[in-house]
Amino acid sequence: MQINCNAGFLHTNLIGDLPGNGIIWYRKNSFANILSFANVINKNKVIYDSSKGNQFMVHKPDGSTHIFAVGSIC
Hints:
mainly beta; 9% helix; two-stranded antiparallel ribbon; single chain; three-stranded antiparallel β-sheet
């Protein structure tokens, strides 16, 4: 897969199964890995908050929350 991000173009052939999210593509030693936003919002409540450092807060069905910061390098 070719990934286009703020670091330019990256390539990967690594696929994994992330519990609670399903199949994902990822790049070893990258700062961030790849989740499909469409898949995340289909399974979880997601809130974007620009007042807290441009964060996406993913509220999981089990009550936990995962925070992703916008602008992270691939």
